[in-house]
């Protein structure tokens, strides 16, 4: 099957953007990734042609996915994957599908988020969260007071609604940056937490 | 994560259809599945409420996916998964995603077919094959002579074109039967050939 | 109007697939078609390049459309045409539109199924049946428990739901095979039961 | 099949709009319709609640479909039906499908326009005409200089392009008025020119 | 910014259709436009290659937008703009966006109709009116009794429903004629009533 | 027209998120906005419930829209508006439509970007830039090597392609955050640079 196999020497993205020297902060951050994950996620290497862009991206990402929130880290990753599935983003589905599997300890849940979140047996709260995220992805111009009221009705606070929206919106950005640049996921993700 | 975990006692489909006694042919076929795969695929158990329907389904399926063809078995599974991805069919993506991984020995290829076949590094022949299958899935009314000519231009015979169309068309059927009945894949598929 | 007229010498499909010798069973079946209908439906002639494929198709088709079911034969044909209308399948609309007219004795009903089933004055039961079939055709990934509950609420059994789904799914297959091969309907259908 | 049969006493539209007294011009026009067709088309009866609206509609319609043009009357009806098929307009498909059959003497052509104009064997000129009309119907915001150039390349003059656009645009209006009011076609159309 | 600036010498439409001599009625009408607006709207100049077409268009337009109706003139313009926004029609959004601003004295309302009518703070009556108009624009084949009932529930009469439908349908026509011909709006509209 | 007028006391967003005390950096930034623009853009006030989120957003935004790039600031704003038009985002169309008018000195160009960028007379370079941005917005999963090659063919460098993609991707994020929260634009934008 030589002709369909992924070539290991594919560059991270399909644009020729030479890496800049890492700033101290970013060198430390890359080292920490390497230590914790065993590799530096390719999205970071993609941004590494420009330290200002890389640092701003990392700040937004870490605040969004790791800072305190009424949403668990797993829930934020579930939104990430459901949105990425709508947008059919190879990079994000591989990288964040692995995160859902790892955080939940449930490989089936990861595969459901990747293929069709509606197939998962979710609580009404989590189902409403993903329905909102995917509606916001598919037709943002139709989101209305009723949609926000629906989230409040299953127990989300206004701050939670911001966080759901912010995560969904963010992956609508990164999905498109990954697709525009043909970003390739690190091979390590594929077998994680299966 | 209790509330999102798949419940192991989910029935195969969401319709109450009591199994009929297996015919001799089907009992032998189920035994063969068990021996070769270690389980009977749930799609077969779903049809087992009626022997005439089960036998007809098995006959079509085996002819389509296993009989002699200008398409390899892997190529037929690639079509199955690319079509099922367009239709976001949880059952078929899990079951046939595993088949792509197993037949190719390439877990990455399986994941690419599931998420977005356009992300795979395919030969022009295989890319044209999947483009045709997905166009036929998405807007069959627009398929025209040019599309068939495009397949011939990369080396497919008219018989091959029939086979591409027949596999793509078949999974447009099974995707919908699985979605209509909320068919659940056998848990064994998830970890296969990762 | 020479340049728009259908050419009578159009082949059944746009692929060159020489007919195989008919098996005894298929020779008998073709003879029966000829006797009952006055012609052999072109979809059968399309499959006649391979007896295994033809026999499997006939088995599935006859079980689905003619075997015992909680759906009348007319209702199964109505589903066939509503689905084919969504998929804009010329072959199936001509052949099965004629069947709706013939089985109902109501040419108007046939034309409504072909153009827009929502224009027909249907019972709530039949309207729910076609709404389900068309939703399953258009966006199978969104079909959910509520949709099945809606069918039960108008009196369908779980077995009926399978049959609605199976007919709708089947025509999503044949519509695509017909479109992929540019299958031409027998001219006899056009004037039937008008 | 009582519950699906069209009720003969359905009103012309689903809005209660009492007919106004016909002006002399409209009385003469209705009489002429009756004499030529054997009935007054329901679209005219729908407008007959207000003579100013009826007269303006008749003026636009007759100029568009009957006045001198580089397009034949049949070609204008073909555009009408292809557009109405995209919009799934029951009224217009029945009424203008009959017109295509009558003007062409070719019932097959009528059925092709109703189901999927791409299935017809058309000259490149007529195919380009319908492709333009349907693109203008489906996504008018994408029509560009290339589309107009494509029409000129198959021999259409700028005046012809106006006429193609004007007929396609007009049926985008009447399709919507018919759908908004649930307009019912005169039963006489169904069997005409089959 | 030379390369993006609109060229002032752009013709009214992208088709070469020499103006016909104005009829007396149309000469008077153009003079009245000039006097009241300071210019002749380009849509009228576009039709001026043929007096029969121009006169019929003017009759329909003036009856629809200016004659007595249960809808205010502003409401009819709001429908015009919401429909034109769905169809992304540059000409109609510029010309009728200005009309909404002028008739309402509310530039914000004009901009909301142009960008997304759902962002406006509308009465339930006006919101239902625009929801109906846009649904009729987007998927006319799905409009049903429930939609008409919804309009009646917020106080619209059957005659009002006709008028909502007729205005929405009309702009589905003119949007497409403008797009097909690349019609350019008079520059005067841009700054009006800001 | 009281019932359609925008209420001046609408809150910035439809979520109750009390403002946090401004950090020194953000206090200085808000003061600078006030001085330069006469107001603080509401998107900044929306984020002001959390300084970490506000600072990260400002860092990304300023780098993207103001830092050195092969794209002019106007071109970046044109992408912002064309993307926001596809997503029908009221907030972004008002705020960035004003920016296009101000930076270009061309109110017509601003209105074209808001309504339909295809109506603008653009250089092939700028047209390709916007076509890519809108394709990436509409169907990111279909972006391929050909699309990147098309940008290179009109003179864009790989770094320019990143910047086009990054701006388009970013507004796919902010459009959704604005829609999810019903963000209201500052009233000052409406009349700017008309």
Automatic annotation (TrEMBL), chains A, B, C, D, E, F:
InterPro entries from the UniProt entry: AhpD-like, AhpD_core, CMD-like, Uncharacterised_peroxidase-rel
One MF term in the entry's GO annotations: peroxiredoxin activity
UniProt KW Transmembrane keyword: no
Protein name: Peroxidase-related enzyme
Lineage: Bacteria, Pseudomonadati, Pseudomonadota, Alphaproteobacteria, Hyphomicrobiales
Keywords assigned by UniProt, alphabetized: Oxidoreductase, Peroxidase
Species of origin: Rhodoplanes serenus
Oxidoreductase found in the keyword field: yes
Pfam families: CMD
Domain Carboxymuconolactone decarboxylase-like per the UniProt entry, residue ranges: 55-102
Top-rank taxon: Bacteria
């Amino acid at each position: 099957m030589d002709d369909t196999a992924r070539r290991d020497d594919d560059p991270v993205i399909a644009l020729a953007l030479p890496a800049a020297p890492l700033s101290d902060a970013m060198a430390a951050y890359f080292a920490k990734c390497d230590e914790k994950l065993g590799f530096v996620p390719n999205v970071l290497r993609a941004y590494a042609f420009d330290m200002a862009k890389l640092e701003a991206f990392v700040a937004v990402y870490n605040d969004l996915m790791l800072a305190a929130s009424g949403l668990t880290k797993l829930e934020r990753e579930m939104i990430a994957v459901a949105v990425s599935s709508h947008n059919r983003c190879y990079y994000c589905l591989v990288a964040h599908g692995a995160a859902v599997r790892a955080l939940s300890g449930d490989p089936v849940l990861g595969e459901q988020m990747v293929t069709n979140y509606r197939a998962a047996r979710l609580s009404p709260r989590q189902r409403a969260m993903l329905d909102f995220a995917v509606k916001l992805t598919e037709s943002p111009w139709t989101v209305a007071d009723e949609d926000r009221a629906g989230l409040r009705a299953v127990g989300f606070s206004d701050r939670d609604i911001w966080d759901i929206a912010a995560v969904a919106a963010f992956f609508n950005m990164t999905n498109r940056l990954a697709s525009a640049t043909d970003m390739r996921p690190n091979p390590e993700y594929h077998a994680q937490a299966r």
